[in-house]
Amino acid sequence: MLCVGRLGGFGARAAALPPRWAGQGSLQAGIRARRVSTSWSPVGAAFNVKPQGSRLDLFGERRGLFGVPELSAPEGFHIAQEKALRKTELLVDRACSTPPGPQTVLIFDELSDSLCRVADLADFVKIAHPEPAFREAAEEACRSIGTMVEKLNTNVDLYQSLQKLLADKNLVDSLDPETRRVAELFLFDFEISGIHLDQEKRKRAVDLNVKILDLSSTFLTGTNFPNKIEKHLLPEHIRHNFTSAGDHIIIDGLHAEAPDDLVREAAYKIFLYPNAGQLKCLEELLSSRDLLAKLVGYSTFSHRALQGTIAKNPETVMQFLEKLSDKLSERTLKDFEMIREMKMKLNPQNSVSMLEYFYYRQYNIEPSLYCPFFSLGACMEGLNILLNRLLGISLYAEQPAKGEVWSEDVRKLAVVHESEGLLGYIYCDFFQRADKPHQDCHFTIRGGRLKEDGDYQLPVVVLMLNLPRSSRSSPTLLTPGMMENLFHEMGHAMHSMLGRTRYQHVTGTRCPTDFAEVPSILMEYFANDYRVVNQFARHYQTGQPLPKNMVSRLCESKKVCAAADMQLQVFYAALDQIYHGKHPLRNSTTDILKETQEKFYGLPYVPNTAWQLRFSHLVGYGAKYYSYLMSRAVASMVWKECFLQDPFNRAAGERYRKEMLAHGGGREPMLMVEGVLQKCPSVDDFVSALVSDLDLDFETFLMDSE
């Protein structure tokens, strides 16, 4: 999962990723190689030992979080934000007084960078730091920077300084492709905020933006809010499966893994029972988004949201989803029939519905059998081997300074290229702890950019996982799913490290949403290839390699119900498109859910439920939920074109870096896809790529052919 700040015109761009730019060669040639450090240590060993913690540096100077001197104490956030705000005011004056030209774009990017360097860091700290004082200070910094962004997004003089540049054809023609694209992105961000409108409409747009932010926050909170029911309404013998609160039972989730059919049924129907306040919040959110889209010149919110993506418009998205649904329908029915047979053997009384699917689709492999082969250190060494052979990159553990990390078990990795030197830093916050968010994701802390003095501002990111800690008898051991997630998140990190853009506004993962997950999903293909896994999967006690028959069983387990799983994603994506399509909606959101489920999924709707009220992605991925499927389609095509024959092919790795990773969001995503695939894929190509993954078991084929 990719986490990015959303600060409007001057924040990190929404989750998504783009391609190559014409000036890449000259930029890389102009960047001085960073020298290596003798303090670096092997990455694998660093993750299989307990951290030494602060005991190593009891009396050393406290450097501050991420090496930022001000952040040695919570009060430092106020100092950092005030410093950024003062610099912002100076840069705004420069932008408005500088004659239009390439320098205008550089000033805008520096302005974006000065805000993001505080806001992105604060966005992470406010949810991840174990100390409340740091979290609260970071939250306040986010509010302060957000207020400045709102001010900038309504600064007409600032907008006009950019507009003058893009209105002058001769000036535009003189810009290199990346500079022109960044200028257009800044202008687009301004105009979707309504700055080009007259004063009255501009005020309406600002008010709608504020309302949407508030509604989004309220809806997001409501998606996780538990429901309760009076105790006497539940059969006594299942009450112990839930939390009690006086005369009520609290239901805080679907309990999809509970073996008792009645427990799952109760949880599903109670947790998804419609909440009137949440229903109204969703309706207002969708309506407000539609009003804002129309106000700034778009027919629907979906049309506004899909500007600059691979899909480009909602018509293409719906064509993609409908064609994919048609191709999946027969396979999905077979999956449902298989689940029905499984259920009949265990409990022949009820038919299969949505409330049963999530339980019976589970396959009988035991993840714990695989854990001894996937120690965290071995997996990190596996990533190191892959990245070195594919891209000439090595990961080295570096001892952080006192105060640099927020928890003693956070590891700092230096990312080093064999000829280019130090590329950036990855902070690995991998282990479970109290109050830590239960999500696996990538955070940009500082974006890369070419500075005025010719140096390159090195990117800094955090990878957050929730892995079990090591014990006295064993290192941290990963399930196959955890191992795949580790590879996935490292894909995001490599995008950030290798996105050598001139401008931080389009650095690394700051690109269109339907491209953002391509590098991370591609890494999942490597994680599921026996030739890669065989390089590192060793029993932590005996050193025995992971047996091929176990890999084969694991691969087969991933094919079980894969069509139905994909069909479910199609249903979610179609629902998202309809909600953000033509307004007023033709029916209630619940009626639309029921109709869309019948058309795009097949399992019957459960009466008196409203799953859409738990659909948290409607906030961060509004009109863009299809992005997961499209990114997977692109990743599948890249895998088959470049790496299926040899997952360690260095030439293919360099081509992938040059055409895709290097450009961040500095090029149109489809141009990057074309660069790697050597063709412009159609909707049918995307659909075929996804469907073929259900058929071909590359790993089993390779093992059987040996």
Question: What does the model show?
Answer:
With 706 residues, this protein is of the alpha+beta class. Among the domains are: 35-63 and 366-516 and 533-545, Collagenase (Catalytic Domain), CATH 3.40.390; 68-194, Endopeptidase. Chain P, domain 1 (Glutathione S-transferase Yfyf (Class Pi), Chain A, domain 2, Up-down Bundle), CATH 1.20.1050.40. Helices cover 53% and strands 8% of the residues. It is built from 28 helices and twelve strands. It has helices at 24-30, 43-47, 76-97, 102-128, 132-152, 156-167, 169-174, 177-191, 199-223, 261-271, 276-295, 301-305, 314-346, 354-360, 376-391, 480-498, 513-516, 518-527, 530-533, 548-559, 562-579, 589-600, 617-620, 627-643, 650-659, 669-677, 683-695, 698-704; strands at residues 2-3, 41-42, 227-230, 243-245, 248-251, 393-398, 411-417, 421-431, 441-446, 449-450, 456-457, 460-467. Strands 1-9-12-8-7-6-2 form a seven-stranded mixed β-sheet. A three-stranded antiparallel β-sheet has the order 3-5-4. Strands 10-11 form a two-stranded antiparallel sheet. α3 (76-97) crosses α6 (156-167) and α9 (199-223) packs antiparallel against α11. The longest helix has 33 residues, at 314-346. It is globular and about 75 Å long. The two termini are 36 Å apart. Residues 2-32, 53-58 and 698-706 have low confidence and may be disordered. It is an enzyme of class 3 (hydrolase). Residues 255-690 form the Peptidase M3A/M3B catalytic domain. Cleaves proteins, imported into the mitochondrion, to their mature size. It catalyses: Release of an N-terminal octapeptide as second stage of processing of some proteins imported into the mitochondrion. It is found in: Mitochondrion matrix.
